[in-house]
Amino acid sequence: MELRHLEYFVAVAEERHFTRAAERMRVAQSGLSASIRALEKDLDADLFVRHTRRVELTDAGRALLAEAHRTLASAAAARDAVAAVRGLLRGSLTVGSEQCLGVIDLPPMLAAFRRAHPGVEIRLAYAGSGEIVEQIRLGRLNVGFVALPGPAPDGVRLMPVATEEMMLLCHPGHRLAEKDAVGVADLLDEDFIDFSADWGARRVNDQTFARADAARRVSVEVNDVHTLLDFVHQDLGVALVPAPVTRKPHAKGLHAAALHGGGSAAWQVSVALPAAAPPGPAGEALLRMVRPPSGGPSGSARP
What global pTM score does this model have? Predict the structure, then answer.
């Protein structure tokens, strides 16, 4: 089994199309197809169900996909480790992050990293924390910046960076705008603007109401912080958000109140890493920009 065969297999699995996979890998389709057939012969199993316009993974193909990601990531880490011994930092680093984590300011951090290590190619994708940790578990991301309550999922380890409190945001004309602090009981009849279920803040909010054995109405569900703030500005609902969101310029004019009560959960920002594999030299270099040498939390704070 060759690494090149695994790379072609992953491309076909993700593109679900041989022609697009060949274009992505910059090889002739005939060569890619021959590699897939050789891999299937080596494994004595069909990896794809071929349709006229697409392909789908078989059960064997799905089983191989997760292992292929991990194998390719380990091979890349091995190459990078050898390069690091020679005094070089090269290779690629795939990073995922949830939006507006506040305590992590990725644009200047990644710009500084690129200046320090021009031989490393960085790829960044934004998604909800749930999706990011799943991609970490599958070996598709090297490093993730997430906000997840509770213990780390299987296959993932979390390095805590900072903890922030959840706060209420409401329109200045809302009935709760006179309060400096609110509890869950004050919010039972409200319409909520909230993030999708994959976001860390949404999971914290769901846990807070579950602990209070209380239901709530999420009338608007968004995937963007500024859109959430737009809806609150229009007084279409209230929002429970991490404290850094209340300090964003776009939140100016809204009323912010603390969320009190023993049932309220904190918003924990962490670095997510594969549990079974080291981050590699490039990953370690990025982590040193997040934490000081002593290992405590650090990083650029962003309002």
Answer: 0.69
- Dist. CA 45–CA 40, nearest whole Å: 5
Cα(5)–Cα(215) distance, rounded to whole angstroms?
Answer: 51
Over the stretch 104-151, which tens digit does the pLDDT of each residue have?
889 999 999 999 888 888 999 999 999 999 989 888 889 999 998 888
Structure tokens at 93: 């680093």
Per-residue CA distances from 180 to 158, 233, 256 (Å): 33, 18, 7
Separation between Cα atoms, residue 294 and residue 70, nearest integer Å: 30
CA 212 vs CA 187, 202, 207: distances in Å: 12, 16, 9
CA distance 303 to 243: 9
Distant-in-sequence contacts of 63-71, Cβ < 8 A, 24+ apart = 64/9, 65/9, 65/10, 65/13, 65/138, 66/138, 66/139, 68/6, 68/9, 68/10, 69/10, 69/138, 69/139, 69/140, 70/138, 70/139, 70/277, 71/3, 71/6
| Residue type, position 9, single letter | F
Please provide the size of the chain in residues.
303
User: Residue 192: what are its φ and ψ, rounded to 5°?
Assistant: -110, 140
Rounded CA-CA distance 165/211 in Å is 16
Residue 83 in tokens: 């390069």
